[in-house]
Design goal:
By secondary structure, this protein is an alpha+beta fold. It contains two helices and three strands; from the N terminus they run E-E-H-E-H. Bound molecules: zinc ion (ZN).
């Protein structure tokens, strides 16, 4: 089967080959937002979001699938996190 496994959902479904770019751009967006809010005098925004933060299930940024919904492939998050 030719499947670029769908690994999760964050704004849209995310396939494995796009995951790294997606979380990098997400981290960039949050950092930019935090800087803007801090410049406006808002407190409580940390400004050092790392892409890997978005793969922390406890933080709940992204719905992380255990299996690819299309082919049933077991998604190895441990390996994925090491490769980010
Ligand atoms: Zn798949």
């Amino acid at each position: 089967m030719n499947c670029d496994h769908t690994v999760g959902y964050m704004h849209e479904f995310i396939v494995l080959s796009e995951l790294s770019d997606k979380i990098k751009s997400e981290a960039y967006g949050w950092n930019k937002h935090a800087k803007t809010m801090a410049a406006l005098g808002s407190k409580g925004y940390k400004d050092d979001y790392n892409p890997i933060d978005f793969l922390d299930g406890r933080r709940g940024y992204m719905t992380m699938f255990k299996h690819c919904p299309y082919c049933g492939y077991k998604i190895n998050w441990k390996e994925i996190k090491k490769s980010i």
